[in-house]
Amino acid sequence: MLPWKRVLRPVAALLLTAAVAVVPAAAASASDSAAPTSGWNDYSCKPSAAHPRPVVLVHGTLGNSVDNWLGLAPYLTSRGYCVYSLDYGQLPGVPLFHGLGPIDKSAEQLSAFVDKVLAATGAAKADLVGHSQGGMMPRYYLRFLGGAARIGALVGLAPDSHGTDLDSLTHLLPYFPGAEDLLKATTPGLADQITGSAFLTRLNTGGDTVPGVRYTVISTKYDEVATPWRTQYLSGSDVRNVLLQDLCPLDLSEHLAIALFDRIAFHEVANALDPAHATATTCASAFS
Question: What is the average pLDDT value for the chain, to the nearest integer?
């Protein structure tokens, strides 16, 4: 059990940046083996000819390999994909809520996990689907850690591609002496996501994409976390940026719902993973 001081310091940092999101806690331990095994983290799963690349799901900040994917993972496995999810960015002694460690180190964890999945499945490449930080962090893996040779597509659900100002709340940090230093010291994964951070400057210098990877960004105009929402979009020759409300004006999903249970977003993920067999995404996709 953590001493109270060690517990409260990260909590204080979270509150100061209004970065706390309510994420359902997993009933079981969020380990690789905790998810159902009907294709989700089932290392005996072999990709089919129709879906030759396994899909690796990359959770967002404060999420984990189970709770972030209780909707999308079964959606994809039921469509014949081999699906895997990892935990990354853990802080010592902090269970369940991950994605708080330095993002460059989290990208190294992703690299090792992809290698594990490729070794188990025998596939030459995998596809990545990430939510929030999980849609942005893999770009570091692709650009700096050799990931482009092992990945076919990256699909980001509400990724903070160019950082976030949390609806301008991060602009208040200078008015709280020591707050930014506390944030960097206790939850570097949050500090790395603030617009203009050293991490994001390095990530985005020289362009948003690398050759050989297809990129899809799926956003909602009701996002209250990765803001302004238009900064989620990427630029590049093999990029597709999608706004959910252009597909279905009735879709009211915000930052969490887009990954947790929005089947309109899920349908667009499936299209991005298999563009050769894509079908129109509409409001009716909520029932598909």
Answer: 86
